[in-house]
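=== RUN LOG ===
request id: a7f3
mode: sequence -> structure
chains: 1
length: 230
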Amino acid sequence: MTAQRPTRLSRQERRAQTREQLLDAAAAVFARLGYRGASLEEVAAEAGFTKGAVYSNFATKADLFLALADRIIKERRAALTDAYRGMPLDDVLDSIGSYLRTQAATEESIDLFGIELWLVAMRDPTLRARLADDLASTRDAIADILAAKLEAENVKSGFTPGELATILKALGDGLLMQVYLDPGAIDPALVGRACRMIVGLPDPDEWSAGSRGAGVTPPGGSATKGKPAS
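=== RESULT ===
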């Protein structure tokens, strides 16, 4: 039997592959050295390429930085929406605290880059505007998911889906910073309770088993976990 020859990549495919490898290397270098300390030479060495390979894909360090930011933001947005789209609203809110802890335990280098990105954007109006657009897209994606769940589960919130997305995103970002500095200070259950109260769902610790058994629907929430309010 004749062995099959490996499929040769086209020039465009090889270029795309090189670009992704450079972005992987850039993530490690920026996290280790920061934006100002990093150089295209460092990125090339990390990826195992020449400096010319970097310049053939990215004109400047800023271009590389922005391309990496775009990839990270889009990947995280897709992962977040995929994870939450099929979950009941209260499960989504209850899981936020645990999600933050998992993120801190497994994605520290990415979050370091995110912090660096924020710092650079604070000093660069062009980058700040670009980052603001990306953040708005993330909030819109979260708002779309919340809007669908609020309608499907007949939950009456005191905030619009857009307002909820803004509040929950800001809360999550702030709590993540605290998790890195003092992991034990953030109780996932407390985060879930806070998120539920913001949205308008009842606190399960305060909603007595007797009331649930009697079929009484709590204000702004559902009598049974995951089911619409009557």
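=== NOTES ===
Residues 62-204 form a domain with the Tetracycline Repressor; domain 2 fold (CATH 1.10.357.10).
Confidence is low (pLDDT under 50) at residues 207-230.
=== END ===
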